[in-house]
Amino acid sequence: MSSSGLGLRLAACLLNISEARRKHIVENIANAALGKNGQKRPEVSVLNIFSDQDYNRSVITIAASVDELGNSVLAACVEAFQCIDMQVQEGIHPCLGAVDLIPIYPLTDVGVEECGAVARSLAENLVLHIPGCSVFLFGEADLPEKRTLVQRRKQLGWFTKRDFSVLEPDLGAAPARRCGLTGIGASPYVMNCNVTIDSQDLTLGKEIASAIRGSNVNGLKGVQAMAFPHEGKIEIACNVESFRDQEATETSDDSQYMAYSVLGDHFSYVSPHYIEARIKKLASDQGIGTIGRALIGFTPQECKNCAEYAIKKSIGEFWKIRGGIFM
């Protein structure tokens, strides 16, 4: 992901909100990122919307010039906090906030450190503009420790509970029950890839998720995985981190690792095809098949390419052309 040649300095936010069952609400939040009352924001595009009914969670991919991204995401968050109430929210997927996660990723001619500055500024503006909003920071926004999202989530009990009374935010007051707690940070691009196994055995799903998790022996580097019941089957949900790799070279789609670069920094990540093949093998060893794979949005290269095209052509609602995914 080298320079675009268009003079664009682009970053992306994969905005995770705790709503998927009211499609009009999700679309209103996406449209808020583009501007209201006819005042459209230049150099901003909503590239994709992925909504999952069982999880009651949507991921809205917003790409913009690095100077515009913070204001665009702030507007979307204001809309989201007005419409989503954590006191009544229900869904299989863990979450702590109405706006649950705001990760900022570099795409073109922007470093991850600058994305961290955008994330910190956005966090300060959120608690200033939204009463009851509380924030925890991660990655390049969490200075000086730069703790990872997984580290912060474990510290806060994100995976296991929703007890707002014991949560301690980095910014803002104690979490309000309506808003909950929002994670804001920056890192190299993190892709979301889910694979469904043809089983209702959650224990087996957790064993497969554990086997591919990068923190375990023989796991896949940079992969975090959980297993959830989903549409009558079990889904292995994977966060696929990009990691710095100075020896990275361009790779083919069937390689284990894919490589790209941003502003001279070289990164690699595990191919979604390889993740699917690994899960398929582990499931097959237990006499079980797989049903399919879902990529939540884009690979890093796809996100960059779509962002450059959409912004060059001034296509704010790119997701409508591409076809947002509502499951």
Describe this protein's structure.
The protein is of the alpha+beta class and 327 residues long. The protein is 30% helix and 29% strand. It has eight helices and 14 strands. It has helices at 23-34, 66-83, 112-129, 149-156, 202-212, 272-284, 300-312, 318-322; strands spanning 10-17, 44-52, 57-65, 99-108, 134-139, 181-186, 190-197, 223-230, 233-241, 243-244, 257-262, 265-270, 290-295, 325-326. The strands form three sheets. It has a seven-stranded mixed sheet, sandwiched between helices. Strand 5 (134-139), helix 4 (149-156) and strand 6 form a beta-alpha-beta unit. Helix 1 (23-34) runs antiparallel to helix 2 (66-83), helix 2 packs parallel to helix 3 (112-129) and helix 5 crosses helix 6 (272-284). The longest helix is centred in the N-terminal third of the chain and has 18 residues, at 66-83. It is globular. The two termini are 30 Å apart.
